[in-house]
Amino acid sequence: MKKSFLLIGALAFMLVLGCTKTNKNKNSNSFMADFSTPFQVPAFDQIDTTDYMPAFVEGIKQHDAEIAAITDNAAAPTFENTILPFDKSGKMLKRVSKVFFNLTEANTNDQLQNIANKVSPMLSKHEDDISMNAKLFSRIKAIYEKRKESNFDAQQIRVIEKFYRDFERKGANLTKEQQDQLRKINEKLSVLSLKFGENLLAETNTNFKLVIDSKADLDGLPEGVVSAASEKAEKDNMKGKWVFTLAKPSMIPFLQYAKNRELREKIYRGYFMRGNNNNANDNKAVLTEMVALRAEKAKLLGFENYAAYIIDDNMAKTPAAVDEFLSKLMTASLPVAKAELAEMQKIADAEGGQFKLQSWDWWYYAEKLHKQKYDLDESEIKPYFSLDNVRNGMFAVAGKLYGITFAKVTNLPVYQKDVETYEVKEADGSHLGILYLDYYPRDNKSGGAWCTDFQSAGWENGKKVDPIISIVCNFTPPTGDMPALLTWDETSTLFHEFGHGLHGLFTQGKYNRTAGNVPQDYVELPSQVMENWAGAPEVLKMYAKHYKTGEVIPDNLIAKIVNSGLFNQGFETVEYLAASILDLDYHKLAAPAKVDPKTFEKEAMSKIGLIEEILPRYRSTYFSHIFNGGYAAGYYVYTWAAVLDADAFDYFRKSGDIFNSVLAASFRKNCLAESGDDEGMTQYKKFRGQEPSMDPFLKRRGLK
Q: Does 177 reside within a domain?
């Protein structure tokens, strides 16, 4: 998740943002001026937790003063005295916000969560104060109404139109009474979103552990998985036992390999019941109120429902278009998933299983089917995907496509000891940006993987502002003398988030409002397209090397990986589509909206014919993308963008060279660097020369 750069999070490490710093001047605050660090990266070794609240207060104060300077200007509104200073305003507030909210996801503690609960309503009010500032809007409106008559270039017109539309969508045309109502809704939503995330964090990282004290219950599990569980137990003061958690590097291998069916059910039930246990961390009431408030907000702003409000700003334009898109794909994929289930049931029956497969059996029997049909065992290929090799491989791909290089730097402050930092340079050696990589799970880190930034690319006072990008993951950590060995899914995920990182690194544009700013259903194109290179045979030979011997992955294993590309695609597509439809159904509710999440979810899934052996990828009470992220009424965007990425890679493949330098230069220019210069489809067609075809996507998924 650009958050996808999707953010998601949280151990109270002794060191959180310089909390252990002892020589800090009480009168200093690290955020009050630009960081005096190499490349102006955040000064994590200087930042103290007590810096945040004063910095937020001062940042809001400075931003208010910048807005007042625009609105109090007696001169007639112009691009130079209104649009440009507004576009560049809020620098300090952005500086503290980017550090603080990234860290509340990647390395949080109780202090940071308490600050977040206090500051979120403040920021909601501040944003509303700007969006509903009548004097500011009137100046922007005056420029907007004369934009075609003035001597503006295309990018000036675009930024004017974007700002005008922002104000409209945030309530600038509402009455004072309606604006007051909208303010209350926005404040409530900001607090509820935080609450949802905090509840989920506790349910995932604190409230469940599968503790095993009998070695017999480990039967079937690979050695590395057992070792990791033993290390986790020792860390939790349970030496001699084995601890499995709901973090995917722990849970998924257990579901794939553990022969003990009761324990597979226990851990999976722990996962899919998160936020739905009628305890202090239950999310049902939280999401119910959020759905109702969003419906009310949409109605206030003149939309039929919240989905219509969100999608109106996307490539799809209407919920009906998304419904048609999802329905078409579900019709194609559900029969494939049912066929996969039937094949797995045959395996269970042949082994003497006297039961009908359930959702917690899917991974276990899918792994057996995988080996049976493709003679491919995940444990057979993992030795070729050490984290170092995969990282170096994605760097090499970017180098061959775009000529950029990555040099590890060790003199930059980091927020946690395991974080790596790299300087990214252009082919000519000039500085492009900085990349942070944070790989492993922690008790104080949200689940999932995401890419964000500590500083966005842009322009200030005629000078380029270089991006500072961060990729955060939850990958299988190293154990004993064994390095971190990634699953194929983790390998693809790293390439995926790196694609977001490249988008951020390459972004260009004079104006903050439009540089790199793309529709939500375009966001995943830059990330997902990189997954295609991860699995290309010629690329696998570049980076997939045995961690012990250095042997390049043999052709027979490459063939197995390629041949198994269609494996389990019915399941993966259906569980994703089910979650997308659930998201859309919640947000197509009109005000007043009152739902019982359990009943609503059950009816929504029954309506589409979802089989009980498959759960939506995210059930309501832990659907953080839509209730604690930026994907409300927008979870569909991954598949929407998948059509684009499959078509784009097909273009490279059909050119005869997946590293075609002409196509790579065009993709970088039109789909990454200048992605915000025009509408999403317009930019894509500049690269592709035509509308995308759905055929490459359907063929890739085995749905055609």
A: yes
Q: Residue 552: how many CA atoms within 13 Å on its side-chain side? A: 10
Do 160 and 216 fall within a single domain? no
Helices 569-587 and 597-607 cross at an angle (nearest 10°) of: 130
CATH number, residue 152: 1.10.1370.40
Kindly state whether residue 422 falls inside one of the protein's structural domains.
no
236-295 pLDDT tens trace: 999 999 999 999 999 999 999 999 999 999 999 999 999 999 999 999 999 999 999 999
Are 109 and 186 contained in the same domain?
Answer: yes
CA distance 574 to 580: 10
- Catalytic (active-site) positions: 497
Biggest CA–CA distance in the chain, Å, is: 85
Q: How far is it, in rounded angstroms, from Cα 9 to Cα 247? A: 11
How does pLDDT run across 89-103, given as a tens digit for each residue?
999 999 999 999 999
pLDDT score for 14? 22
Euclidean distance between CA atoms 136 and 498, whole angstroms: 38
Same structural domain, 158 and 263: no
Burial classification of residue 219, based on how many CB atoms lie within 10 Å of its CB (0-12 exposed, 13-18 middle, 19 or more buried): exposed
Domain annotation covers residue 597: yes
Number of domains in the chain: 3
Return the closest-CA partner of residue 95 out of 156, 25, 41, 165: 41
The Cα 403–Cα 428 span in angstroms is: 9
**pLDDT tens track for 351-369:** 999 999 999 999 999 999 9
In the block, tokens 């009906």 appear at 320
| Same domain for 250 and 343 | no
Is 59 domain-assigned? yes
Q: Which domain holds residue 369?
A: 284-382+569-635
Q: Tokens for 459? A: 């322009």
Reported for 35-38, long-range contacts at CB under 8 A and 24+ positions apart, including other chains, are 35/95, 37/412, 37/413, 38/409, 38/411, 38/412
